[in-house]
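Case study 2.
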Amino acid sequence: MRRSETAPRWPGTVLPRAFFNRLATDVAPQLLNKILAATDGRAGRIVEVEAYAGAIDPAAHTYRGKTPRNATMFGPPGHLYVYFTYGMHWCCNCVCGPDGAGTGVLIRALEPLHGLEQMRAARPPQTRDRDLCRGPARLTQAMGITGAQDGVDLSGAHEGFAIVDDGVAPPADPAGGPRIGIRVGTHLPWRWSVPGNLYVSGPVTRR
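Prediction:
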């Protein structure tokens, strides 16, 4: 991966690799209120996430083992895993756990903070600001994330993107419930969001 000339532009501390080297179900709620920041100035606060637990999770891309498509998820923690879905959309995940675990966290929604003009230009005309990053496919489009970013190191390697702690704590009692947009593993309550945030992609129903 070619290094960027500058680090992603957002004040705070870039999350170290150790942050991601844990169970995805532990990492996911702790990612809430962190900043996904890009070198070009675009940045958004993470307000909704889902965990995917590899070989024990039938909804995970890695459930049936390693393939060329999902190889990044089996690599070191703290990298982006970007995949193409429905023949038209990109989605991005943070790889979690030790090498070979095949686990990660899907970033489902951001609250846009900076670089909104760039985000608007990347999204369809007439898109409301509330909808710029409200959903996994929307946020990748707004942030300029495609398959070219698969494998990007988020932990300070200056590869275009990082996840930054700017001092805003995760919610003490995040909204939680079943994951959405999947057909299997729907009983697992592995979706978390910032309560009351307008940029969350859909309602959260606790189980």
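Residues 13-193 form a domain with the 3-methyladenine DNA Glycosylase; Chain A fold (CATH 3.10.300.10).
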